[in-house]
């Protein structure tokens, strides 16, 4: 796994890369919580794919080590457009004509916006605990989007616990994870981008049913039954409106399926990407 940086629309995009470039490409899109980035979301999952796929995982603009432009959108839909342009530019720079997409939470909504914008550039799409469907904001997600109103390390520790059903699944102590993420979230540019992104309602990420039914691509939708940030009814809604979608709900699992059910999800995803089912 290597760390790289390329220019995309006048700013630098940081991304993780692994696997043989001659193989089909899978692009992993991270979620939108405080401190989210490619490393925190995907570094433990990438090895499950990189033997057979060329894998890219960018820090989406507004997060992580990707540049944080001064001139930022005023709306959540503007941010989504900016990230669509970023991913397409990354593909162009790396010479990737067509790719598979895997999107977690906000990254799932972005995956659908990418398909809506450039359907010919994408093959198979997996959505994991995806935003962009139809669900009511929960108390947990409202705490997340308002984190910087009282950005304490204890508040971040609570959020981290709430993201999973069983915190032992994280494989290390909550305090260690929180300390690492807290340094990230308190970077001024990260805070500025997060507050600007969530200055409007998360509901703006929703993809209209009229758009969903026009996406003929195969979709694998997975969700944790105990997810309290994006509740499973959102994925049920997506499965009902996407014409070629299948849905798998994992019991005893929260928002981070790629961490809590890593082996099971990797097996499902590999079968899906090879058209085994």
TrEMBL record:
Instruction: Give the top-rank taxon of the lineage listed in the UniProt record for this protein.
Output: Bacteria
Question: Per the database entry, which stretches of residues form a coiled coil?
Answer: none
Keyword Hydrolase in the entry? The reply is: yes
* Tagged with keyword Transcription regulation: no
Matching entries from Pfam families are given as: Abhydrolase_6
Q: Tell me where in this chain the AB hydrolase-1 domain is found.
A: 26-267
Query: What keywords is this UniProt entry annotated with?
Result: Hydrolase
Q: Name one GO molecular function term.
A: hydrolase activity
Q: Which InterPro entries has this protein been placed in? A: AB_hydrolase_1 (IPR000073), AB_hydrolase_fold (IPR029058), AB_hydrolase_sf (IPR050266), Epox_hydrolase-like (IPR000639)
Protein's name in the database: Alpha/beta fold hydrolase
């Amino acid at each position: 796994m290597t760390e790289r940086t390329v220019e995309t629309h006048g700013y630098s995009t940081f991304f993780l890369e692994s696997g043989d470039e001659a193989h089909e490409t899978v692009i992993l899109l991270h979620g939108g919580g405080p401190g989210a980035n490619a490393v925190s979301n995907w570094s433990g999952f990438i090895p499950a794919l990189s033997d057979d796929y060329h894998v890219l995982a960018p820090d989406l603009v507004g997060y992580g080590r990707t540049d944080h432009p001064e001139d930022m959108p005023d709306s959540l839909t503007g941010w989504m457009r900016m990230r669509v342009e970023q991913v397409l530019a990354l593909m162009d720079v790396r010479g990737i004509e067509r790719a598979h997409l895997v999107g977690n939470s906000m990254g799932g909504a972005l995956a659908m916006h990418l398909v809506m914008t450039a359907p010919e550039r994408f093959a198979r799409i997996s959505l994991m605990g995806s935003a962009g469907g139809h669900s009511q904001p929960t108390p947990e997600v409202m705490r997340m989007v308002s984190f910087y109103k009282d950005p304490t390390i204890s508040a971040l520790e609570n959020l981290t616990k709430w993201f999973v059903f069983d915190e032992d699944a994280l494989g290390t102590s909550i305090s260690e994870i929180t300390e690492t993420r807290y340094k990230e979230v308190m970077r001024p540019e990260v805070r500025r981008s997060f507050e600007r992104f969530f200055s409007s309602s998360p509901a703006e990420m929703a993809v209209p049913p009229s758009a969903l039914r026009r996406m003929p691509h195969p979709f694998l939708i997975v969700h944790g039954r105990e997810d309290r940030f994006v509740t499973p009814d959102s994925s049920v809604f997506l499965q009902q409106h996407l014409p070629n979608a299948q849905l798998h709900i994992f019991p005893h699992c929260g928002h981070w399926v790629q961490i809590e059910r890593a082996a099971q999800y990797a097996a499902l995803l590999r079968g899906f990407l090879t058209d085994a089912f």
